[in-house]
């Protein structure tokens, strides 16, 4: 077995050999610690009878470990300069497909048809480019892909917001959006020192287990997410205040109060104290009123 890509020495050698310069704008912070990668893959629950979809292979640090652990790896890399490097660093593996494309522009139906026709479950595993963590995850979740889970390295602060429960300062519309589709857990906190170059912020591994169905029944998803967002518009204001302001052209004050009564929610509460079921009850009621 050849030496792992994810060591400071080998990474430097590869970067020098190709005269590669990092593009900050693409969130290029490469992992240089094999143990962290093995831990990430362990947290993802990847085994030889599973396929992995990776976003942003870089010079192949995680891709290599996934190739060893999984049946097959399909990896999307936006930076064309990395393709010839990856062909070289990953040449020992015959179960990797590299796609030189922006993940946000991926045609997943085509990807599944082309690469994931076998019966193996597909999991997403990545060290995400931090500048687009939320758009990538929301797009993957809303596309309703036939995946079982997503396990990703990302900024610690954002991971904590995604996994937060009510009555914490991290809890907000992002927590609800992510947890509507998945069960979210922060699996480990990762120091800056395992990256090259080192990012400014700490990182964490977030594991998202896809739900078969949402945990609450929502009549109109768009309206539900809009109400959730409005409830957190000004975090220090009451629910009554935020919602009256947001729906001022659509709902009269007494209608808003009826909604609170129906949902058994005190209007003086703040958005951060409501659980997902309470938001759903309010949204379903108001949606009926607006119709
Ligand atoms: N997986 C490698 C590792 O762990 O060392 C690299 C991770 S680095 C944080 C993020 C990678 O995502 C970079 O290689 C970057 O070029 C790539 N990337 C950035 N934006 C992307 C996009 N929209 N689609 C696909 N890849 C992207």
Task: Outline the fold blueprint.
Blueprint: H1 8-18, E1 30-31, H2 34-44, E2 51-55, H3 61-69, E3 72-76, H4 82-89, E4 96-99, H5 108-115, E5 122-127, H6 133-142, E6 147-155, H7 156-163, H8 173-181, E7 182-190, E8 195-196, E9 203-210, H9 221-231, H10 239-246, H11 253-263, H12 276-290
Parallel strand pairs: 2-3, 2-5, 3-4, 5-6
Antiparallel strand pairs: 1-8, 6-9, 7-9
Helix pairs in contact: 2-3, 9-12, 11-12
Bound molecules: S-adenosylmethionine (SAM).
Residues 26-31, 55-58, 61-62, 76-79, 102-104, 127, 129, 132 line the site of S-adenosylmethionine (SAM).
Radius of gyration: 22 Å
Low-confidence stretches: none
Distance between the termini: 64 Å
Basic shape: elongated
How many beta-strand segments? 9
Main sheet: strands, sense, barrel? 7 strands, mixed
Q: What small-molecule ligands were found? A: S-adenosylmethionine
Name the structural class: alpha/beta
Total of DSSP H or I helical runs spanning 4+ residues: 12
How confident overall, as mean pLDDT?
A: 97
Helix content: 40-55%
